[in-house]
Structures are given as C-alpha cells and as structure tokens.
Amino acid sequence: MRNKNLNKLVKISVLSALSFVLMLIEFPLPIFPEFLKIDLGDIPAIIGGFALGPFAGFLIELIKNLLHLLVTKTLGIGELANFAVGAAFVMA
To answer: Is 27 within the bounds of a domain?
Structure first.
C-alpha cells in the first residue's frame, strides 16, 4: 500500500511540475485585450484527473497555482481565478 501511495504522489508531483512549466509558456489572444492569455497548463491536470482521479487533478491545479504565485507579482488574483476555473474544469 505504501508503494502505491508513493507512486501516486510522484505522478501528481511530476504532472504538477509539467503543468507549472506549461503555465509559464503563455501567449496573448490576437483579438482580445492583452491581459487575456492562453496557457496550456491545464492539460496535465486533465490527464491527471482522468488517470488518477478528480482529487489528484484538483491537487495538480492547486500545486501549479501555488508555484506560479511564487513567480508572479499579481498578489494571487490571477492564480485564484485560474485555480477556480481549472478546478471546475477538472471536476466536470
């Protein structure tokens, strides 16, 4: 049982790190305002949600946004919005 939990923890950690790196690669939408940007950071969370369960996808979103909070200067507003949308996306 311990190896199974450790295996799941490692998968969540790797997917969170991949999601964080993909979140850093963002590009603006051509027609919309410049603060609206596309990032592909939700793709590993969706994969983790399907493979490991919705709670794992929720954790991947949480860890990704906590890591992104350390890098940016938005005081958590953008991260909170991203977490709310990403968590709803993973749970649905």
So the answer is: no
Distance separating alpha carbons of residues 12 and 7, to the nearest angstrom: 9
Per-residue confidence (pLDDT) for residue 52, from 0 to 100? 94
Residue 19 lies in a domain: no
Q: Which residues, 6+ apart, have CB-to-CB distance to 20 below 8 Å? A: 41, 63, 64, 67, 68
Residue that is written with structure tokens 């991203």 in the block = 82
Domain count within the chain: 1
Q: Is residue 18 part of a domain?
A: no
In a domain, residue 26? The reply is: no
Q: Which positions ≥6 away from 72 have C-beta within 8 Å?
A: 78, 79
Tell me the mean pLDDT per 10 residues along the chain, length 92.
87 96 90 87 94 94 93 86 92 84
Predicted structure pTM score: 0.88
Sequence-distant (6+) residues with CB within 8 A of 81 are none
